[in-house]
Amino acid sequence: MRYLMTTRPADSTDTAPDERLYAEMGKFIEELTAAGVLLATGGLEPGGILVTSAGDEVTVTDGPFAEAKEAVAGFALIEVRSREEAIELARRFRKIVGDGESVVQQVFGP
Questions:
Q1: How many angstroms separate the CA atoms of 88 and 95, rounded?
Q2: Distance (Å, whole) CA 38 – CA 4
Q3: How many other CB atoms are found less than 10 A from the CB of residue 102?
Q4: What is the three-state SS of 38-68?
Q5: How much is the pTM?
Q6: Is the distance from CB of 69 to CB of 8 less than 8 angstroms?
Q7: What is the pLDDT of residues 71-94, one digit of tens each?
Q8: Cβ-count burial of 68 within 10 angstroms (0-12 exposed, 13-18 middle, 19+ buried)?
Q9: How far is 70 from 38, CA to CA, in rounded Å?
Q10: What is the C-alpha separation between 72 and 77, in angstroms, rounded?
Q11: Alpha-carbon distance 75 to 93, whole Å?
Q12: Dihedral angle over CA of 12, 76, 50, 58, nearest 10
């Protein structure tokens, strides 16, 4: 089962990660990669592009957007045996990075 885990910071303040965070995340990523669980990971630009549609009209709006706290800051695509395993990995991630929130969604398809 594949899951996409996305993360949002607790607030929009730009605080630089410290060496402890880099070290702990490095270990976590190495562990998941070695186990074949982590398929892809990355950070996302804060601005982004919003594409909306209504009927036949498609609108493209460049970011950044007013609600930056709702913007997804990063993602991880994982392959695990169960929903519970995905949740446990999200719990471990949140303990490393601290305040904020993550969304875990099952990915369907090939």
A1: 11
A2: 10
A3: 20
A4: EEEEEECCCCCEEEEEECCEEEEEECCCCCH
A5: 0.81
A6: yes
A7: 788 999 999 999 999 999 999 999
A8: middle
A9: 24
A10: 14
A11: 11
A12: -170
Q: How confident is the model at residue 12 (pLDDT cuts 50, 70, 90)?
A: low
Q: Contact at 8 Å (CB) between 97 and 24? A: no
Q: Which of 51, 90, 48, 52 is nearest to 73 (CA)?
A: 48
Rg over alpha carbons for the chain, rounded to the nearest Å, is: 16
**108 φ/ψ angles, rounded to the nearest 5 degrees:** -100, 155
38's tokens? 């982590």
Kind of pairing between the strands at 57-62 and 74-79: unpaired
C-alpha–C-alpha distance, residues 12 and 110, integer Å: 35
Q: Look up tokens 């186990």; give the residue.
A: 35
Asked whether the predicted pLDDT for residue 70 surpasses 90, the reply is no
Q: How far, in Å, CA of 28 to CA of 21, rounded?
A: 10
> How is residue 74 written in tokens?
């990063």
